[in-house]
Specification:
The structure is a single chain. The protein has 14 helices and 14 strands. By secondary structure, the protein is of the alpha+beta class. Among the domains are: 221-307, no CATH class; 312-419, no CATH class. The strands form four sheets. Strands 5, 6, 7, 8 and 9 form a five-stranded antiparallel β-sheet that branches. Strands 13-12-10-11-14 form a five-stranded antiparallel β-sheet. A hairpin with a 2-residue loop joins strand 10 (312-319) and strand 11. Helix 4 (72-82) packs parallel to helix 9, helix 5 crosses helix 7 (146-155) and helix 5 runs parallel beside helix 9 (189-206). The protein is globular, with a radius of gyration of 26 Å. The termini are far apart.
């Protein structure tokens, strides 16, 4: 009967804003509104080609149909995986529109190809072995497959970030499974929602638009001018915006001003010389009493800024049996001679702790880290001078800066170095 096509699916009604409910269900109207709200901001930028945007919108419509047909969520999740390659093909074609794709043969002799249709490019690739220069300058065979397109997008920095690299590799695996008669399976509304949101982030990133608060391709984050203070005797701690400090504060308290992301968890771990939080902070002033902090704030008027949270450079020192926490390039370059000893590691990572965990695992003789799957890019290692030269090549405008050595005196403060067992 026709009513069977419009009756709500009980399984969907049990997915609520508070999680999966076994004791109750949403009204069908509320369920539809809730599911729509989950993908409300999963939209594509106007720069994306119309055909690709229409395909994405069809998936959004199917997502809503999951209220009356639970298995629509499976179709959405699977179809979302299938859109990654068409998106890359569209971006590849647009990237070279009006100019020749700089293909070469194996010996590096130019084999340019001009076309506004990816089908023409794919046909040529089926006939000839063509190559494109990769980011390291070497020629890489380009077959036009999903892995080739992902590598190309990375080489041209259309895709960025270290943690999402593993997700991109997983997309290839999932696409291949779906292409080879994957057995019947069921996806939840959560799976479908995340698939759509991830796909939207991916496509928007290809067209140069990062996602504010995104979990795959996040946009730059805003850092405010903050103050962290503590009482020397009671060790009580307080965190506030620097503009809130006044001369009326208890003179027994000591304060530090810094630029960072407003987050109590991060402020508790503030360290002027080492990266101990998710987003690097920048020391500005202190420690001192609130009156002096307020006076400095009024005279200098430091402003908020934005930093890109992904693909940042981190440096770690291994001296003796101690591995030190990550440092930023500016602090590394300004390190005094006595703090340059040992062997240094230069890595690119989205989070400083990712770099730390990777290096610690490499050095630990009791861990098998030969097949490294860490979300980092290991760039070089060696003495301070060698690593400095590599860093200058990667960041020519680097300005060394060594701030006052201070950190938040809280029981939650991390040790600046850990011992590495001897093999």
């Amino acid at each position: 009967m026709f009513s069977e096509l419009t009756n709500p699916d009980e399984r969907t009604l049990r997915f609520t804003p508070m999680g999966l409910s076994l004791g109750g269900m949403l009204h069908q109207d509320d369920a539809l509104a809730f599911q729509r709200s989950q993908i409300a901001d999963a939209v594509l930028t106007e720069a994306v080609p119309v055909d690709l945007r229409k395909s994405f919108e069809r998936l959004r419509d199917k997502h809503g149909l999951g209220v009356v047909d639970y298995e629509q969520f499976t179709d959405v999740a699977d179809a979302a995986i299938g859109l990654y390659e068409p998106a890359l093909r569209a971006r590849f074609t647009e990237f070279y529109r009006g100019q020749a794709v700089p293909f070469t043969d194996k010996e590096g002799r130019p084999q340019p190809l001009t076309s506004n249709r990816y089908d023409d490019i794919a046909e040529r690739l089926r006939k000839d072995q063509l190559y494109l220069p990769s980011c390291d300058g070497k020629l890489a065979r380009f077959r036009g497959m999903l892995t080739d397109l992902l590598r190309w997008a990375r080489d041209h920095r259309l895709l960025q970030g270290q943690r999402v690299r593993r997700h991109e590799e997983l997309i290839v695996v999932m696409r291949n499974r779906l292409s080879h008669a994957r057995p019947h399976h069921i996806c939840t509304p959560v799976d479908a929602t995340l698939s759509l949101r991830d796909l939207a982030e991916f496509i928007n990133q290809l067209w140069g638009v990062a996602t504010p608060g995104g979990r795959r391709y996040p946009a730059p984050v805003r850092r405010e001018v903050l103050a962290v203070g503590w009482h020397p005797t009671t060790r009580t701690q307080a965190i506030t915006r620097a503009e809130n400090l006044t001369s009326d504060e208890d003179p027994a308290w000591r304060w530090i001003l810094y630029r960072g992301v407003p987050d109590d968890y991060e402020a508790e771990r503030f360290d002027s010389r080492y990266v101990t939080s998710r987003f690097p902070s920048e020391y500005l002033w202190g420690p001192g009493i609130a009156a002096d902090a307020a006076a400095w704030q009024a005279s200098q008027q430091p402003s908020a800024d934005e930093i890109d949270p992904i693909d940042r450079l981190y440096l770690l020192r291994h001296d003796g049996n101690h591995l030190y926490l990550p440092q930023t390039p500016e602090i590394f370059a300004a390190a005094p001679p006595e703090q340059r000893r040992g062997r240094w590691h230069l890595l690119r990572a989205d989070i400083g702790n990712d770099a730390f965990v990777c290096v610690r695992a490499q050095l630990n003789p009791y861990e098998n880290h030969n097949n490294c799957l860490c979300p980092v890019q290991r760039l070089t290692r060696g003495p301070w001078s060698k690593v400095r030269d590599k860093l200058r090549h990667l960041q020519p405008t680097l300005v060394p800066h060594l701030p006052v050595d201070v950190r938040s005196p809280t029981p939650m403060s991390w040790p600046r170095a850990v011992e590495i067992p001897n093999g």
